[in-house]
Structures are given as structure tokens and as C-alpha cells.
Amino acid sequence: MNETSTHAAASDLGALLPPARRGFAQALHEVRALFARDARAVELYGAAGSLGAAVAAALAAGAGGAGQAGEASRGPLLYVVADEETAEARASDLAFFLPPAAASDDPLAPPPVLELPAPDSSPYADMQPDRRTTLRRMAALFRLSQGFAPAVLVASAAALFRKVVPRAPFDALCDMISSGSTLNRDATIAALVRAGFSRAAVVEDAGTFAVRGAVIDLFPPVYRHPVRIELFGDEVESIRLYDAATQRTLRPLDAVYVHPVRETIATPGADTRAKILAAADAAVYPSSKTRRLLEQIDEGELFFGIEALAPAFHAAMAPLFDYLPAGALCVVEDPEAVIDEARRSETRLREAASTRHVEHRLALPATDFVLSEDEAAATLAAHRRRGCTWSPRRTRHCAPSCSGRGPTPRARRPSPRASTSAGRCASACARGWTRAIACASSPTTARTRTGWWRCSARSAWRPTSCRRPATRWRARAAGRRWAC
């Protein structure tokens, strides 16, 4: 890349980077060029920290050419990480790098970044899950399905691979009430109950509603404040947001959207009774308790532990990917760690379900709640065909010592993985390719150099070692040390 094109790429970033740090600008320029040439997937090695979020934000913004604008119009960019802590950090990074949202007083204006939270407890745990987490997940599903999606959706492996309410029944339960329209008061109350809203004397929490004569107060989780609907006969006279604490009007609305607020809502095609009876037989659950449980469900009672029966309310729970457009761009940070987390989650749930069966307690199959490891890998691979991945820890085919973790192996014989990687590198070099590896320190560079030299003397070698953290960051972000 010549100096002119490098400065052109850096100008797209608003000159945020000094001239000495052109690695990010060069990486972004190459990734955009690959997508402009209809690349199905791009793999970026050596990206660590907020560098990946910066590249993803630039791709989501769609700046820098018609090809990128077309990518941005496909829908929200899905950014996948391994754990919740990293998801919070990346959401903060993306909010910094993305352009600010346009000024709007619309309470449903799509945010630049939306983090999908993971359930905070196991469905088999004897504890009530956090209601706020469930409401946030249901509000995110509404935004994804009804055209209010953010520019970037950030999800950890636990949040992404947890199954959700099927898309078609969810859409059927969503509704819009507009000012000036005709409204059947009793039918609206019944619709709110079907969507999972709880009736209360005063609306203070999301997911509740109250009725006082010709006034209906409701609090859909997608809004920050509750909504008051005033009727004049069967006509909606006014709709307005109000403060739950002071009861004062905040602003009028032209319409209010209603969406499901719980996963334990019966949807068409579900045979709740049959699924619960099958689970009770598998666990040798007492028949008297089973009958009482079915009676509570038929009466619409919200009892402790009902969330553990969520899959029984649907024909089959669906993956979150069903709510994303077919051409949505998917970015995966450290794919190996993401799949490892999916495997651990499935294993934990299977063990918990087995324990409950041994104790003769009711437990639905673990695969009713989460995607299995194979399903997660297949689904992620299918969506990565149109996306970008990077591994901040190490390149995919390098020797174990390349990551710089753990003690140095004492054996003089190179590992099979190093031999295979060196062979692939030699084959690539024969075709004119050059492979570069960034190491975190000088000792790691020496160990890696020795290991690769023993495997193949033909391997193209360009070691990079750094001592200080700031210098290491420049090395990892340097343009000539990543590959797509």
C-alpha cells in the first residue's frame, strides 16, 4: 500500500490516529476492500482489545464507499464475544467509535449499540431469575423483529446461544395502538394478559398494566417510562408518556407498541400438558404435584419456578439468529473461546438436569434451553460466511508457545500442531504468501522462532517482540502484522 492510499484510509477515521500508527487504518482499508469485492468472510489475526470494536464500528457505520453502505443496510451488525464482561467492554468501545445517534425525541429511536444480556441463572436453579434481564431480552427481540434494531447488537456466547420465543408467535403478539383509533377495552386487556403483562393497582414496573375506568396504564419494557392511554368511549383520545413517580406527563405519543414480556406465554402449536407429563415421567415426579402444576398453568398463575418450564409453552424454542436478517454482518471475536463457552454451558445444564432427575425433580431437556455445541458451531459458521472474525490470543495454526502462555516446553521435539502449522506456512510461502506472527515479549519470540525453525527451515519468518504494554499494542495493531 503506498503512502497516498494510507493517508486516504486514515482520513476516513477523522484523523484520530497519529501518522506513526497506521495499523488500524490499513486493516480497515483492506477489510473494506475485501467486502467490496464480495468476500464472503474475512479473518483478522492479532486484533486485541478495542481494535476489533473499532473495525466493527467502521463496518457498521458503512462509511467509505457504496459497497459498505450496502452492507450497513442489511441490518444490525452482530458482535459476538465469549463472556459477559467482554460484552460490556465491547459495547462501551463500540458506543465510542460509532457515530452519535441523530437527535430525536422518539422514545423508540434505535440506539447505536444494544447489548443483549445473558440470563443470570440456570433454569434448573432454585432461584428466581432477574426480571429485568428477561425484560431487556424481550425488548431486544421486539427491536430486532419490528424494525427498531440498533446499528450493532453485542452478545456473549451465553446470551446468543440461549433459545428464545419463536419468531412467528412473537410477531403475532406484537401490536400497535395509535391515537384516534378505535379500541375495545376488554379485548385490549385480554391481549395484554396474553402477552405476559401482569395487572397491578398502580404501574411502577415494566411488564405491568393497570385499568381505571377509561384510562389504561401500561409499561412495555421497550420504553423507559410507562404509557397512559385515555379513552373517550371506544376511541383513543390521547396517548402519553408519564413519570411513574410523579404521575406527570412527559410527552404525547402518536402510538404505543405492545410486545410480549415473558417467555412463559402459550403460543400456537405448543402442547404444554404433554411436555410436562413427559418430563414428570422421566423424573418419576409425584403425580399429585404434577396435577397441581398443570392446574396452576391452566389458571394462568405465575408461580415460583415457572421459568424452568418455558420450553413447554412453545412448540420449540428458536435461536436468536431467527430474528436477524439473512444478510446481517456477523463479527466473532475469538471464535474458539465462543464455542468453548457454548460447550461448557451445555455441559453444565446437562449435569444440572441429570441431578434433578436423580432427585426426582422436574427438569426439561437441556437442549430445549440452549443450542448444543454442534448446533452453535454450525449456526455460527453459517452466519460467519458473511462476516469477520479475529483471534486476539493467537493465530489459528501456530504453535502453542506462540501465545506466550505457560511454561516453555522442555521437549526438543516440536509438537504435532507446530509441525502441521509450519507445513502449511511452507506451502503458503511456496505460493508467494508471507505469514507474520506477533509475539508479546522477547522470550516468547525466541521460543517461537526455535520451535518453527525446527519444524521447517523454509518458513517465512518475520518476528516481532515488544516489552512495554504500549509498544505491544502498537505491534499488534500494526498493519503489516495482521492477515485477512
| Strand ordering within the main sheet | 1-14-13-2-4-3
What portion of the residues fall into strands of 2 or more residues? 5-15%
What is the CA–CA distance across the termini? 15 Å
CATH topology of the largest domain: Rossmann fold
Question: Which CATH top level class of the largest domain fits?
Answer: Alpha Beta
Number of helices: 16
The residue fraction in helices comes out at 25-40%
The CATH architecture of the largest domain is 3-Layer(aba) Sandwich
Q: What overall form do the CA principal axes indicate?
A: flat
The count of β-strands is 16
CA-atom Rg in angstroms:
27 Å
> How does the major sheet shape up?
6 strands, parallel
Secondary structural class: alpha/beta
Number of domains as seen in the coordinates: 3
- Average residue pLDDT: 78
Low-confidence stretches: 1-21, 63-73, 393-422, 452-484
Write a short abstract of this structure:
The chain has 484 residues and is α/β, with parallel strands linked by helices. The chain has helices at 3-11, 23-36, 51-61, 66-72, 84-97, 131-145, 157-160, 167-173, 185-194, 272-283, 287-298, 335-358, 373-384, 416-430, 442-455, 469-477; strands spanning 41-45, 77-81, 113-116, 152-156, 175-178, 198-199, 208-212, 215-218, 227-232, 235-242, 249-252, 255-258, 330-333, 387-391, 437-438, 463-464. It is flat and about 65 Å long.
